[in-house]
């Protein structure tokens, strides 16, 4: 790529740099994608999340999300995923 120097003038993420070095379109094909797919929430998980939220929202001095994560039966959920789902619900 003779014009790669122009691309170097702008800030790049590690994923973009990898795409530049390995060939454009490699990330779209799923090769070397940095993020794994997020599992969708089932209706049962959403119901459990609602119940846990209503149970722990009134507790003084305790982090609601931390309490929910400790009692959430679905392993592998991150704090960010729980917060996003609660906002959507």
Describe this structure in words.
The protein is an all-alpha fold. The chain has a domain at 43-88. Helices cover 51% and strands 0% of the residues. It has 5 helices and no strands. It has helices at 4-7, 14-22, 43-56, 64-71, 79-88. Helix 3 packs across helix 4 (64-71). Residues 30-34 have low confidence and may be disordered.
Mean pLDDT: 79
The oligomeric state of the chains shown is single chain
The termini sit apart by 47 Å
Order of helices and strands: HHHHH
Basic shape: elongated
Largest sheet: none
Please state the structural category: mainly alpha
Binned strand content: under 5%
Number of strands: 0
As a whole number of angstroms, the C-alpha radius of gyration is 20 Å
Percent helix, as a range, is 40-55%
How many separate helices?
5
Uncertain spans: 30-34
GO biological process, one term: replication fork arrest
Organism: Nyctiprogne leucopyga
Protein name: TIM protein
InterPro entries: SANT/Myb, Timeless
Which SSEs are present, and which pair or pack?
Elements: H1 4-7, H2 14-22, H3 43-56, H4 64-71, H5 79-88
Helix pairs in contact: 3-4
Protein name: TIM protein
GO biological process, one term: DNA repair
GO molecular function, one term: DNA binding
